[in-house]
Amino acid sequence: MIIAVEGIDGAGKNTLVTAVRKETGADVLAFPRYDDSVHASLAADALHGKMGDLTDSAYGMATLFALDRAGAVDKLRRFRDSRDVLILDRYVASNAAYSWARTRDEGIVDWVAELEFGRLGLPEPDLQVLLSTDPDEAAERARRREAADASRARDAYERDGGLQQRTFDAYVELAQRSWHSPWVMTDDSAEILARIRTL
Asked: Which family does it belong to (predicted)?
């Protein structure tokens, strides 16, 4: 089964994914795959100001992130109808939420779903988890992380507080709609483990 953990930058996704992995022995895959995917690498360059005006295009950036995930589609499909667990640190809802927040156009949510679940054939998750971390706290965590580790410099999205708030609001709306799977909104790994056992 596929469990996608979602949240804004600094929400604590890696911490929660690590805790769930320890308890379940699940496989973990984090998106974007900056070290393994040329599409993710190009997106990272854009977010750090190295690709001209590419970041001006929400559709262009969303396409790069979608193509990164498409590069892992065979692995993803192996878990879709399996009792083995794959935990994803970000997935398609990330593209939907950030793109909606960037464009302020709700229609882009359907475009992302058609691109990734439709044209690229990515499997829908069995459960999506939205970390309920307050955006102000998440932003402070991202700043502390950057100060402690020069390799974790915040990108253009992470430095934009308004974007992070709008993205969180978009995520909440997606969760309330049960967008493409059941959702749970929490930051408690025990609650996630309990939900996994019921799937």
From this structure: Belongs to the thymidylate kinase family.
